[in-house]
Amino acid sequence: MAGSTFQDIIDSFTLTPQQVQKIVDGLTEELIEGLTTTDPKNITQQPSFITRLPTGKETGLYLAIDMGGTNLRTAAVHLLGDGRTGVTMEKHEITHELKTGTGEAMFDWIADCTAQLLKTVAHDLGSSELHMGVTFSFALQQTAINRGKVVAMGKGFDLSDVIGKDLKDLLEGGFQRKNVPVVVSAIINDTVGTLVSHAYQTPSTKIGVILATGTNAAYIERAAEVGKYKGPACDQMILNTEWDAMGRSDYLPQTKYDKEIDAVSLVPKFQEFEKMVSGLYLGELTRLAIVDLIEQRELLPQLDGKVPETLKVRSSFKTLFMSTIESDMSSEHHAVSSVLKTSFGVDGLSGKDRHRVFTLIQAIGVRSAAMTAAACTALLLKANGHSLNLDSTTEETTIGIDGSVFEKYPLFARKMKNSLVKILGEDRASRIRLELAHDGGSIGAALVAMIHTSGGTV
Questions:
Q1: Do 51 and 236 contact (CB within 8 A), yes or no?
Q2: Are 22 and 220 in contact (CB under 8 A)?
Q3: Angstrom distance (rounded) from CA 66 to CA 197
Q4: Which of 64-73, 302-311, 377-386 has the lowest mean pLDDT?
Q5: What is the mean pLDDT of residues 352-366?
Q6: How far apart, in whole angstroms, are the C-alpha atoms of residue 315 and residue 293?
Q7: CA-CA distance, 262 to 257, in Å (whole number)?
């Protein structure tokens, strides 16, 4: 990494309007390509088999699980009508041992977690009502509303004997082994769940986004354009874009740090867009850049280019540290010293050092927001003329966004909005609302399970 100056590094993370537009155009091309491709390696634009959004009037009590990149959430969801819900939820951390073990061990554990929830809500559920909606935050080839083959798993997962298997069979196998009386009635992706659940509360919602450990999005597409869909005839279809897996080197503005993260990941050349914007990777981008700055004597020059051993540990700089540092808006940025000393034992930062680390982290956060806004723009433009009308003078479109990066990273929503203004212009961007979506996976899964098991068409 020889020759990098501080300004070189900041410039490498700062996107020009032309670079942002290339992302919009490139993602739009891939969205269109994904609608019809039969290449099994292309996991984008997956039909969800869900053909409409909820009305907000649905009622009932259903089980749900939401399996993400970091946690498993089990829930009993009360749909109360008028967009209201009541949720009893339990959260369980998915350990590294589980992520890299056997599929059977993972699904036995999920069954144990579900059994624990049933003890909590048993008084609310009759034995004939144990229908479950499942939100699965990984690539599925959906074959029915309650069936789908696992196509790929990122986010640190490396389970044996899971890829290519039907998720309903995997889950119900665990339930049967553990004597848990639950039937999987619906399977959805977390972004589909975010879209469905936020539309239950806010009918103007047309796009659902996840921005947490990983990232993904869902939107409504005209069924006639979804050439890969072979199910019953319908007018429209909610698609799981799997935009995390999109991105080509001809339009993604990858820095040398992005390329290094990709090269050492479990699956190189997979989920390259996600590796540039999501919570699992932002902290590591920061660490690699800090290491480079120290080696070039652009940071902590008293170390004479020698990087502390603590900073050499991969993934040791958490995205949470970035949030802590950006939350300190004082001119002295003392949070930089606090984080580096407390977590890495690194002391002796000058005011210049603190300012440089703060500026670096801010540039990486702004880039993530700009790229996410560009991806949302691609969806808005792809759907324009159907469920969206960007040129309307009155119609408002809501994007429901769930995830820790959007919720907890300082001013992330404002950064995204600023990027939308730069891309779309003030007038059109003013009609796009970015709203925080909560518990989208659980509520969305329950909504789809309820409509499916009640005999309606989702």
A1: yes
A2: no
A3: 13
A4: 377-386
A5: 98
A6: 17
A7: 9
The tally of CA atoms less than 13 A away on the side-chain side of residue 154 is: 25
Provide the 3-class DSSP secondary structure of residue 185: strand
- Count the alpha carbons within 13 Å of 304 in the hemisphere toward its beta carbon: 0
What is the distance between the alpha carbons of residues 62 and 60, in angstroms, rounded to a whole number?
A: 7
DSSP, collapsed to helix, strand or coil, labels residue 77 as: strand
- Which residues lie across from 149 on neighbouring strands? 141, 166
Domains of the chain: 46-243+439-452 (3.30.420.40)
- pLDDT tens for each residue of 27-52: 999 999 999 988 877 889 989 888 88
Alpha-carbon distance 259 to 239, whole Å?
Answer: 29
Which pair of tokens denotes residue 218? 């869902």
Query: Which two tokens mark 46?
Result: 């997956």
Q: Edge-to-edge strands of the sheet including 71-81?
A: 84-93, 71-81, 59-67, 131-136, 183-188
* pLDDT, tens digit (0-9, with 9 covering 90-100), for 139-177: 888 888 899 999 888 778 889 999 999 999 999 999 999
Distance CA 416, CA 248 (A): 22
Strands 139-144 and 147-152, sheet pairing:
antiparallel
Q: Which residues contact 185 (CB under 8 A, 6 or more apart)?
A: 131, 132, 133, 146, 449, 452, 453
pLDDT (tens digit per residue) in 274-288: 999 999 999 999 999
Specify the pLDDT at position 218. Answer: 95
